[in-house]
């Protein structure tokens, strides 16, 4: 499996293309649909699905426009549905203008632990704290974890939002730290890291 990272949008959210035999699974489509659609076409990829680590606009703003071209669902935890419903209102609050995102058209909710989309098999870890419906995706064969805004290099997601929970985030981090220490962490913003290195800061 090939992993390609693109930092997109005003908030530079990390969008990941997971590619296997030209099948492509996107994790956190960010908010730059034009770039993503151009890359899919340029690389001649077959988009099979989109995963969201959580529902903030900088991670899912492009979904609706992408779905106008590709009939693929967005997979997300249901507890973040309220963020999808208020997508443009939240974006306007943080950006200072209304970006007029097209809201996701087809949404499916994550309810199981082990999941498969086309050629991609992975484990889903519910990781509330930053948002109620935050989640991480662990690919055991590659030993990589996509954490969204739950865990960054030398930092964790903010919990000062009205719907955030520092207590829940602490519990989520404990769950993450049970994974193999050499697990590569691909976060929602910034650089990649290794789980062992982050234990120094958050154990």
TrEMBL record:
CDD domains: metallo-hydrolase-like_MBL-fold (cd06262). GO terms for molecular function: hydrolase activity; metal ion binding. InterPro entries: MBL_Glyoxalase_II, Metallo-B-lactamas, RibonucZ/Hydroxyglut_hydro. Keywords: Hydrolase, Metal-binding, Zinc. Transmembrane segments: none annotated. Residues 12-189 form the Metallo-beta-lactamase domain. Its cofactor is Zn(2+). It comes from the Bacteria. This is Metallo-beta-lactamase domain-containing protein.
């Amino acid at each position: 499996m090939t992993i390609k990272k693109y930092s997109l949008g005003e908030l530079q959210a990390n969008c990941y293309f997971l590619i296997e035999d030209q099948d492509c699974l996107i994790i956190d489509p960010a908010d730059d649909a034009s770039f993503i659609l151009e890359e899919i076409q340029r690389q001649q990829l077959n988009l099979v699905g989109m995963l969201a680590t959580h529902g903030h606009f900088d991670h899912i703003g492009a979904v609706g426009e992408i779905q106008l071209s590709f009939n693929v669902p967005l997979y997300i935890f249901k507890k973040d549905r309220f963020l999808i419903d208020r997508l443009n209102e939240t974006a306007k609050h943080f950006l200072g203008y209304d970006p007029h995102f097209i809201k996701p058209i087809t949404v499916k909710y994550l309810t199981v632990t082990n999941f498969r989309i086309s050629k991609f098999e992975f484990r889903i870890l519910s990781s509330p704290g930053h948002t109620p419906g935050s989640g991480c995706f662990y690919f055991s064969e590659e030993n990589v974890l996509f954490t969204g805004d739950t865990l960054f290099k030398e930092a964790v997601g903010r919990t000062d939002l009205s719907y955030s929970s520092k207590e829940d985030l602490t519990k989520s981090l404990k769950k993450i730290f049970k994974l193999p220490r050499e697990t590569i962490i691909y976060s929602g913003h910034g650089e990649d890291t290794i789980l062992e290195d982050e234990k120094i800061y958050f154990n």
